[in-house]
Amino acid sequence: MTLAEANQPGAVPAPDPGPVLSVEGLTVSVRTEAGLQPLVQDLSLTLKRGETLAIAGESGSGKSITSLAIMGLLPPPAVRVTAGRIRLGATELTALTESEMRSLRGDRIAMIFQEPMTSLNPVLTVGSQIAEAIRAHQHVSRGEARSRALAALASVRLSQPERRMAQYPHELSGGMRQRVMIAMALAMRPEVLIADEPTTALDVTVQREVLDLLRDLQRELGTAIILITHDMGVVAEMADRVIVMKSGRKVEEAAVGSLFHAPAEPYTRELLAAVPRIGDRPDRTLRPDAPADATVAELSDVVVRFPIKTGWLGRAALNVHAVEHVGFDIRKGETFALVGESGCGKSTIARAMVGLVAHSGRIAIGGQVLTGQGRGEARSLRRRVQMVFQDPMAALDPRMRVGELIAEPLLIHGIGSASDRRARAADLMLRVGLSQDQLDRYPHEFSGGQRQRICIARALALKPDLIIADESVSALDVSVQARVLGLLKELQEEMGVAYLFISHDMAVVDNISDRVAVMYLGQIVEMGTRAQIFTNPRHAYTRRLLDAVPVPDPSHRRQHRERPGGEVPSPVYRTGEGPGRLTLRDVGEGHLVAGAG
Prior knowledge:
Layout: H1 3-6, E1 21-32, E2 35-47, E3 52-56, H2 63-71, E4 79-88, E5 91-92, H3 98-104, E6 109-112, H4 126-137, H5 142-155, H6 161-165, H7 174-188, E7 192-196, H8 204-221, E8 224-228, H9 232-238, E9 241-246, E10 249-255, H10 256-261, H11 266-273, E11 295-310, E12 315-331, E13 335-339, H12 346-353, E14 360-365, E15 368-369, H13 375-382, E16 385-388, H14 392-395, H15 402-412, H16 418-431, H17 448-460, E17 466-470, H18 478-495, E18 498-502, H19 506-512, E19 515-520, E20 523-529, H20 530-535, H21 540-547, E21 572-574, E22 582-586, E23 592-596
Parallel strand pairs: 3-8, 3-9, 6-7, 7-8, 13-18, 13-19, 16-17, 17-18
Antiparallel strand pairs: 1-2, 1-4, 4-5, 9-10, 11-12, 11-14, 12-21, 14-15, 19-20, 20-23, 22-23
Helix pairs in contact: 4-5, 4-7, 5-7, 15-16, 15-17, 16-17, 17-18
């Protein structure tokens, strides 16, 4: 019986068997030159069978360190438990040897990590890894393990699960890899499941299915879940209780309803105030000096396809139809958002606009067509478009100082002297809320939010007409995310720069965009103003996207909807075949909705 079922009228209370997991006075410390420094201090918590306990807080608060301590995965000898006890039922985990812990890990207690690529073996196929995990803990044949692995992949709605079984992790998208990790955990049916940011990289529709799957696991097996997340919408929908952490300490613990409606601590109130909510922002008007006909970018009938070579001769028998006949424009000083699931073509469009992938059709930046340019003209054209990527650490060279990184675009294009470039970098540091004395630091000396600000400063160095922000805030904490979004708005008001904002976070899109295009399997299915899309969605897929958005309110009751069944649609077609072309029709005031052409 789950907590929800136990609270139904007339339900007979079951005897309390005690917590399935308990943590008492946990302190985790790191060894430094100055001695042991605590990362988590005096943390206590209990977890009952069938309960979901959410641990929320910003990066560096100790959430993930706590989960690693429970799993016995702290990196010795630098980081270790220096005080406290961790019990799984009657088993004292801190007293177990590594071999004893290994027998429990993945079987009675499992974990879903935030970054799946670091958790999956790159030289083993997906199917063999899941089957290996099953056989490590259960005496089943290879055939039975494979069948269960296939069923696990199908349960998380991974497209073409039989094909995925034979693929390697690097052949899958980030969202697909995360679903593989979730499938591996679900296949073992553990007593306790620790989910560390399990849906951060997932689209809202896939996130909705994953959250429903976790609920199903609880309902069927009474699995207890520790949910580590910075998405307060997910916390509101999933958690029974919430622990808020800051700087390694527990700030507040309360039932989910009490925490959202009457938070006791100032830090909790600040955290909740930073959460973006759909409907919070009124429509804005564009700058007076940015008339509607001032077009920064224009796409017309853009097509991008990637061949899949098969057979001994390496012939392209299949094609990925990544982008199919897409067209839109972006005006000066506006934020145009592209939304949709992973694989819908959002990022491919962004790469085509900066010349990183070949395309057919027409892409023009400031009236200049991207293709058919000489080398000098192409370089000049690329000055007008800059990108801000999802992972700032991967986008910044760790061997270069921040001042050099910001000034690098100026150096590449031969703009100014060394002192001029240094002065420009210093000015941009101030513009994005950092200080000039940080110019000589390296990227690893900054937080994630600060590194993203550095990437924004570098994108502004060439004074572009358009900045493409590809999932640029999805990995940030809500409070840091709010500050970065505020910075983007301020820079837009000040400099008149236009944004192509690519995101799967619908609440963030609602709070920053002027116009929105919704993509599905490489084609635009709906396009209009922010108000048109969010208050009057006309296409079934747009409505499904919005229905899937977690609402940061525990009292919100989601309408029950049937889960989609059957094979997940794919953009892969045989050569000579392809999807039916969609045409957009105007349903009023420029609100465009797709219908079969």
